[in-house]
Design goal:
Distance between the termini: 22 Å
Largest sheet: 2 strands, parallel
CATH superfamily: P-loop containing nucleotide triphosphate hydrolases
CATH topology: Rossmann fold
């Protein structure tokens, strides 16, 4: 999706998680291990405040960023928000197939499908604010599959 937006808009792409790891000098998994989820979320919110001050950029965040009301407000105020969605099977497959996930991402605490379902349900209760919701089950952008928020 980033390549599509970069090509369409000519804007820079910012990977919030990657930038957070660079600034912290450690992976998200290590931050979770040392500081817990609360420590990670604090770092994430502080960085999002910095990022949202920029312009002409496409920002990719982790899915949990929307759990904090202030983060949602920052994102809304900074521009158009696009929420990428995928079903449980797609997320589970991507986590299992991505070699970087094991080293960079925190392990699921309970594990497997049930935890992914629970996380998706939690995020869904905060997802009505997004402006566009493309179907992210496809690896490339398919604008014909987009729908405006209902």
């Amino acid at each position: 999706m980033r390549a599509f937006w970069r090509a369409e808009l000519g804007w820079k792409c910012v990977d919030a998680d990657g930038l957070l790891e660079t600034k912290a000098g450690m992976s998200i998994r290590e931050i979770f291990e040392l500081e817990g989820e609360a420590g990670f979320r604090l770092r994430e919110s502080e960085l999002l405040g910095e990022i949202c001050g920029g312009s002409q950029q496409v920002v990719a965040t982790g899915g949990g960023v929307i759990l904090d009301r202030r983060n949602r407000e920052r994102l809304i105020a900074s521009g158009v928000c696009v929420l990428l969605e995928a079903d449980v099977a797609t997320i589970e497959r991507r986590l299992n197939e991505d070699p970087a996930s094991a080293g960079r991402r925190p392990a699921l605490t309970v594990g497997g499908r049930a935890e992914i379902e629970s996380l998706l349900a939690t995020c869904a209760s905060h997802s009505t604010w997004s402006v566009l919701r493309p179907d992210s089950m496809w690896r490339t952008a398919r604008p014909g599959k987009w729908r405006k928020r209902s």
